[in-house]
Amino acid sequence: MSGLEADLDAIAAAGGYDDTDAVVEEAVRELLRRRPELRLSLAVEKYRTGAVSLNRGAELAGVSTESFVRELADRGIDREAGFLSESVREDRLGTFLE
C-alpha cells in the first residue's frame, strides 16, 4: 500500500467517510471550489470530449452560457450546432419507431 493509499484509508476512518472514494470526491469538490480556473478548465474539457452539453458545461464552470461560449471560442473549440444530416436523422427516427 502506498503512502497516499494509507493516508486515504486513515482519513476515511477518522473522518467518518464510507470509503476512500468518498474522501477523494470531497477533496476534488473542495479543490474545484477553491480554484475556479480549474473548474472552468474541467468544464471545457468535459464539453470538448462530449461528456456534457453546452448548458451543463456552463453550469459546471459556474458561468453564464454566453461566457462559456466565449471561453470555448477563446480556446479554439468549435461549438456543435446540434443539427443532424437528413440521412442520420432518418436512420435515428427509423430506429426510434421500430
From the structure above, extract its key features:
98 residues; mainly alpha; elongated
Describe this structure in words.
The protein is an all-alpha fold and 98 residues long. The protein has one domain (3-97). It has helices at residues 3-15, 20-34, 36-48, 54-61, 65-74, 86-97. The chain is elongated, with a radius of gyration of 20 Å. The model has no long low-confidence stretch (mean pLDDT 91).
Structure described in brief:
The protein is mainly alpha-helical and 98 residues long.
- Average pLDDT works out at 91
Number of helices: 6
Number of strands: 0
For the termini, the CA-CA separation is 52 Å
Q: Give the amount of beta strand, in percent.
A: under 5%
Sheet with the most strands, sense and barrel status: none
From the alpha-carbon coordinates, what is the Rg to the nearest angstrom?
A: 20 Å
Main structural class: mainly alpha
What is the H/E order?
HHHHHH
Helices, strands, pairings?
Layout: H1 3-15, H2 20-34, H3 36-48, H4 54-61, H5 65-74, H6 86-97
